[in-house]
């Protein structure tokens, strides 16, 4: 029905006859001449309709915002003084010969160029309108280009695109499962996959050597800006590889992707051990664009007359750390109070600080409510953090995990608020993760998942599991974890040992993933892989604020779809077929009886 998209028109096409199809973005009537901005997925073109073409003029006259039109006409240069150099098609316009109204439109719930004046709920309720915005089209077009580039790269590296099941069984992978009742097996349930983890390992056992998939994954967990109940990941696995092989393949993939799609040459990907990342930045996904670091000062605080500091400094699980902000002494008391409230979100009970006004004056040159308690260690403290006039030093003192989370988050917020970024892109590999972490009851949990290989043998692992490191690696970009992976356990005895250390007995292991344990008996090769969050990747590359902006039909933060009103109730007949009776409904029926 069309010869061109609106965004394809340019000055080289003057005097050509074109046919456009799309929506009325804007309509203007200037002294008997009607101007229509025609919009489609490629852009906007100005169409001029004059009274000489009576039928076309009449149709244009009744057209309104979001009407669907088909227009034929001649491309011409815009008159001098009316050109718009800021618009890709701003040098030309189409003089319409025919205007056909393909469909009318009700008044939209919001104007596309005024979307910022309505809340996100309104835009998600009418997502099909929201997706007409050029910004949204650009984001989804970018997403498509990213997927295409990734596929082309991996296919060129010998990876095969293989689909894995969506209906599977529940396995422990760190989040709650979405369950699907089975009609044919009463009382039994499928689970939607949190990842294709076990299936891709089975593909390695099957001898496929190199697998990839752009896979849908499902996790019933608390949502935030970079989480959705259903999300997409670039999933890959390879056999007969070491960590360096997977890291090299995927690092080159991301480099190629940025060059191909954004024409950006990413800098080198440095390596940083997990322990160092937590010590210096309080996070296992540090944003290296921000030139702020945490400095341990606990040894200086053990004997100070300030229990807020001396308590954690002398505790086995405590930490006292300082965060120096160069030039931060200009922060007002109100701003500091806001930062104190902010760290409270992460469990911090306060935020101590020292302003360094004139260091040469000693204590008199410092401004702080706590400095009087630390007279004997102040100079050592200032030397250790490298404090100079005009700086401010923030402190965290508590259990190690609280200090890391609070100061790590404060570091990122200060970077944003004070615009401290030193680069546009800063990638990083975080390596040498602990194999396990302790839960609240001192039981071991897998830091990644139970199928991650340790960097030691079975005997060493069993003798000292708390000190064991895993063969895992995370790719981080600008403070966001793009992807994580590991070398997997391919030996059944090692897998059984890890499960036992996690408190998963033989019976439970057989019930949850006996099929994997069986497969490991039949010549499983050494293998490993990595999974990237495609939504997060597109979010970063497009400059979006949340992954909801780069998903065509996302859920809200309460895991609901406002457009379709999902989740919703189902009929009693459907429940009966599934042998399910709702508890509340059953109680109500019992009360009625």
Automatic annotation (TrEMBL):
L-aspartate binds at residues 173, 219, 448, 488. Residues 140-554 form the Aminoacyl-transfer RNA synthetases class-II family profile domain. Its EC number is 6.1.1.23. Belongs to the class-II aminoacyl-tRNA synthetase family. Type 1 subfamily. It is found in: Cytoplasm. The gene is aspS. Pfam families: GAD, tRNA-synt_2, tRNA_anti-codon. It comes from the Bacteria. Homodimer. It catalyses: tRNA(Asx) + L-aspartate + ATP = L-aspartyl-tRNA(Asx) + AMP + diphosphate. Keywords: Aminoacyl-tRNA synthetase, ATP-binding, Cytoplasm, Ligase, Nucleotide-binding, Protein biosynthesis. Aspartyl-tRNA synthetase with relaxed tRNA specificity since it is able to aspartylate not only its cognate tRNA(Asp) but also tRNA(Asn). Reaction proceeds in two steps: L-aspartate is first activated by ATP to form Asp-AMP and then transferred to the acceptor end of tRNA(Asp/Asn). The record marks 30, 81 as: Important for tRNA non-discrimination. PANTHER family: ASPARTATE--TRNA LIGASE, MITOCHONDRIAL, ASPARTYL/LYSYL-TRNA SYNTHETASE. Residues 197-200 are annotated as: Aspartate. Its main location: cytoplasm. This is Aspartate--tRNA(Asp/Asn) ligase. ATP binds at residues 219-221, 228, 481, 533-536.
